[in-house]
Design brief:
alpha/beta, globular, binds pyridoxal-5'-phosphate, Aspartate Aminotransferase, domain 1, 379 residues
Length: 379
């Protein structure tokens, strides 16, 4: 199998799997039980929280465990909106967010009467920071942008965005979806109020996420329950997942620079090979882009047909984000970039990791060439 869809998810690292199984076997006790084994489990959860906090250079009480990054995004956005709605109901996001962010904003507008502004992007997927500067008002309570876009890889200048927001309105909270940046780019949270992370994008468990929430930011909980997660997220702690997250993050951060350099070379190699093929367009910008993601378009070829053609070679890439891959419409990210319709309609996403080899890239290129010969062009 040649897997080139690491943005959708990653395989579980063997050392994480081993630790997780040990934890599952040993620690079934409820972390909230008021007897010694319960205290032992909650102690391990708190140890993991404090390791994570150290790695992110934040306080332990600023780290909340969630069931996934989608939940972290929902909690950050709706929790902040509900908390500060008495101050104002104006919120801002971008036109290229993950569905968990985009649909949280949509719900806040449609169901709860918030006013949402969507920041535009240019042909390269870059935000217009002047537009942001002009949109922030006295009643703007929240801005949410991703760090790395999951479809084309464009990197947002999150610290420049933070300084624009906080200079215009120091009370506006800034949330960053860091899912595709963790283990790839440096994460500095000093000027960020809320940030979301996911374990399964960094060779960890599915169903395991994190929300960083600065101590001076308050949230209305979305899952009411007991005392878990400082009362901000009810539900019996998923102890083994939470305990193993610290190790997952440590492994990702320790290898970050090495993996980045390795994947950059692979990306460069694939880009240069693809550019030799007339008719292939590269959508991911050269500058300010994550090397882990390469979006291309092959106009006049249906992307789903090419994905399935490659599948016959046991090669796996995607058309767009996995969460929206079952909808056949154009990717909202590419639509927001106002690319030529034919380019937007024919996008494919290839994503790499340190496990990808150059030989796999060569096999992919050969299979792509053959598929383009065999698959019918749409006119
Ligand atoms: C940018 C981004 N945000 C959020 C998510 C959601 O992560 P999870 O699968 O942990 O809910 C993803 C996953 O595809 C993503 O790429």
């Amino acid at each position: 199998m040649i897997y080139l869809d690491y943005v959708a998810t990653t395989p579980l690292a063997p050392e994480i799997k081993e630790t997780y199984i040990k934890l599952l076997n040993k620690y079934f006790i409820n972390a909230d039980s008021a007897y010694a084994p319960g205290y032992e489990v909650s102690g391990l959860i708190e140890k993991s929280r404090s390791h994570i906090a150290k790695m992110l250079n934040v306080r332990s009480d600023e780290v909340l465990f969630t069931s996934c990054a989608s939940e972290a995004n929902n909690l950050a956005i709706k929790g902040t909106a509900f908390q500060y709605m008495n101050r104002g109901k104006h919120i801002i996001t971008t036109a290229i967010e993950h569905s968990s962010v985009a649909n949280s904003f949509k719900e806040l507008a449609d169901v709860f009467g918030f006013e949402v502004d969507y920041l535009h992007v240019n042909h390269q997927g870059a935000l217009d920071l002047d537009e942001l500067r002009h949109l922030i008002r006295d009643d703007t309570i929240l801005v949410s942008t991703m760090y790395v876009n999951n479809e084309i890889g464009v990197i947002n200048p999150i610290h420049e965005i933070a300084s624009i927001i906080h200079a215009k309105n120091p009370k506006t909270k800034y949330h960053v979806d860091c899912v595709q940046a963790l283990g790839k780019l440096p994460i500095v949270l000093d000027d960020i109020d809320l940030a979301s992370f996911s374990a399964h994008k960094i060779f960890g468990l599915k169903g395991s996420g994190l929300l960083y929430k600065k101590h001076n930011t308050s949230l209305v909980p979305l899952i009411n329950g007991g005392q878990q997660e400082f009362g901000l997220r009810g539900g019996t702690s998923n102890a083994a997942s939470e305990i193993v997250f610290a190790k997952t993050m440590r492994l990702a951060l320790e290898a970050r620079e090495e993996h980045y350099a390795y994947v950059s070379k692979l990306n460069h190699y694939l880009r240069s090979e693809l550019l030799k093929r007339p008719g292939i367009v590269i959508n991911s910008p050269v500058e300010n882009c994550s090397p882990f993601i390469l979006s291309i378009s092959i106009p006049h070829y249906k992307p789903e047909v090419l994905v399935h053609a490659l599948e016959t070679y046991d090669i796996y890439i995607s058309t767009k984000s996995a969460c929206s891959s079952k909808h056949t419409d154009v990717s909202h990210t590419l639509a927001a970039m106002h690319l030529d319709d034919e380019i937007a309609k024919s996008a494919l996403r290839i994503s790499f990791s340190h496990l990808t080899t150059q030989q796999e890239i060569d096999t992919f290129l050969k299979a792509l060439d053959e598929s383009l010969k065999n698959v019918k062009k749409q006119r």
